[in-house]
Amino acid sequence: MHTKLEDTARRISRRKYEEKKREERKQTSGNFQAMMPRDKYEEINSFVKENNITKVDLVIEGYKAMKKKLEKSNKN
To answer: How many domains does the chain have?
Structure first.
């Protein structure tokens, strides 16, 4: 059974902050929540750690590369 933690001044403050900022964050950022096979997930995680890059940078660079590739193939 799950017991609720005691409300402290800090927890109350954080909840209040979260309520205020939730909509703002939703408007300024997004999340793909993509599912993939575990082995591919672990491979990608290792790659970003070894190369000291963020997953966001990986997605952005992958997007740019894919966009460029498709633009090139559509010109042919």
So the answer is: 1
Residues in CB range of 36: below 8 A, 6 or more apart: 44
Could you tell me if residue 24 is inside a domain? yes
pLDDT tens for residues 33-71? Answer: 889 999 999 999 999 999 999 999 999 999 999 999 999
Residue 53 belongs to some domain of the structure: yes
Task: Of 32, 39, 27, give the one whose Cα is nearest residue 56.
Answer: 32
Judge whether 46 and 39 are in contact, CB under 8 Å.
no
Say how far apart CA 7 and CA 35 lie, in whole Å: 35
* 4 found inside a domain: no
Count CB atoms within 10 A of the CB of residue 56. 10
